[in-house]
Write a structure and sequence with these properties.
homodimer; mainly alpha; Arc Repressor Mutant, subunit A; three-stranded antiparallel sheet; elongated; DNA-binding
DNA sequence: GGTCGCATACTGCCTTGTGCAGTATCTCTG
DNA sequence: CAGAGATACTGCACAAGGCAGTATGCGACC
C-alpha cells in the first residue's frame, strides 16, 4: 500500500482538477505557476501521477500521437474529495533556500569584491524574476480565466517578496560600499540597522 | 572518490571556519542562523562533516565526555581555500516553498472559510517568524561579535521578506472578504490588482 | 523530398535530503 | 537517588533532484 500523498501529490491533483493533462503539459504548467511557491523537478512530475492512479485519486488513459505513446491523466471523484479535505489541514511551514545568502553570510571568508559580485548576482536574479512576474500579470488571457482572481492573489505575494529582495540587494550594496573590508565595517552602525527590526509594528 | 561538495558542505565548512564544533553544537548553530536561508535537517548535519573529512577539508577529533564518545570537527587549510574559491562561483537560484500558497492557489476546490483559515495560519506563521527575528536582532551579544555586521545584513533581508508576507496575508484577508465565493470574486477588480505589478519602477 | 532543429513523451540511475525511531550517556534538580 | 532534559549519535525508508539517454512528431527551409 502506498504511503500518504505528499504536498506534491496534491499540487498535481489540484491541476488535474482543472482539466486532464499529459505529464508533459503538466510539467509545463507547473513551471508557469506552481514553480514560484512549490518548485519540483520535471522528473518528479512524471512519477507523481502514477501514484495518484495507484491511490485511486486519478485515472490514466493511454493514447497515441502516431506511434508515440502518450498518457493522459484525469482526476476522480475520490481525488476531488481528497483535495477538499487536504485544504483543511494546516500547511507545512514555509521554507526559503538561497545559496547567495549563504555566501553573504560567510562573506568574511573572502574579500569585498566577492561580496559585491554576489550581491550583484542576487540583484540580477531578483530583477529577472520580477520582470517574469510582471509579464505574467500583463497577460490578458491565461488558460483559466475563471481562476484569474486566485492567480492574482498569489502573484501579488510573489511580487512583493521579489520586490523586497530586489530593494534589499540595492540597499545592501550601498551599505557594503562603506565598509573597509568584509571583516571590518568601519563606522557602519550595525546597532542602528538591528534596532529598526525591533522597533516595529506587529 | 567522493563527488563535489554541495552547498550544504560549504555551509558547514563556513561554520567550521569560525571555530571547531561537535555535530550537536553545529546542528544548534545552524538552527539559529543558517536555517533562515539554508534549512537542512539535523540528520544531514551529522553526515556532512564526515564527507568534509573524506575530502580533506576538515579534520575529526574523537573525544569523550565520561564514557560518551564525541567527535569534534575543525577546518583545514584546504578547507579555508575551498571556501574562498566557492565564494566566487555564481550562487544557485533562490527557491521558496510554501504549502500554504499551494492551498491558496487551489482554494477554488474548497470554500471561503477554508481559504480564510489558511490565510490566518499563514499570518500567524509570519508573525511568529518576525517575532523570532526581532529577538535575534535584539540580542546584545551573539557568539561572534566580530561577525555582527554580516548577521545584520542577512537578518535585514529575512526581516523584509517576512514583513512582506505578513502584510500580504492581512491584505489578502481584506480582499477575500469581499468575494462571494472562492470561484466568484464578485465586483473585485482582478485587473487593477494585476496592473499594480506591471506599472512599477525597476 | 530530405534533413535539421525543436517539441513531445517518457525512463533509469545515482545522489541528496527528510523524518522518524532507536540507543546511549551526562547533568542538573528536587 | 530518580527523573527530566540535554548531549551525541545511527539506521532505515522514502521524497526529491539532476542528468543522461531514447524515442517519435512536426514544421521550416533548401
Amino acid at each position: 500500500m502506498p504511503s500518504d500523498p505528499t504536498t506534491t501529490s496534491y499540487a498535481v491533483l489540484g491541476l488535474l482538477r482543472l482539466r486532464p493533462w499529459t505529464t508533459y503539459e503538466l510539467a509545463k504548467q507547473v513551471r508557469r505557476s506552481l514553480n514560484w511557491f512549490w518548485p519540483r523537478a520535471e522528473r518528479k512530475l512524471y512519477d507523481e501521477p502514477k501514484r495518484l492512479v495507484a491511490d485511486g485519486l486519478a485515472t490514466a488513459e493511454e493514447g497515441f500521437t502516431g506511434k508515440r505513446r502518450r498518457t493522459t491523466y484525469a482526476i476522480t471523484d475520490g481525488g476531488r474529495a481528497a483535495l477538499a479535505r487536504w485544504l483543511d489541514e494546516p500547511p507545512a511551514a514555509r521554507s526559503h533556500e538561497s545559496e547567495g545568502m549563504v555566501k553573504v553570510f560567510f562573506a568574511d571568508a573572502g574579500d569585498l569584491d566577492q561580496l559585491r559580485t554576489t550581491l550583484g548576482r542576487l540583484e540580477a536574479e531578483a530583477a529577472e524574476r520580477l520582470a517574469a512576474l510582471a509579464e505574467l500579470a500583463a497577460e490578458a488571457e491565461g488558460p483559466f480565466p475563471e481562476r484569474r482572481h486566485l492567480g492574482a492573489l498569489c502573484l501579488r505575494l510573489q511580487h512583493d517578496q521579489e520586490r523586497a529582495v530586489l530593494d534589499w540587494t540595492r540597499w545592501a550594496r550601498t551599505q557594503v560600499d562603506t565598509w573597509r573590508s568584509t571583516t571590518d565595517p568601519g563606522r557602519w552602525d550595525t546597532r542602528a540597522v538591528l534596532a529598526t527590526m525591533t522597533e516595529e509594528p506587529r
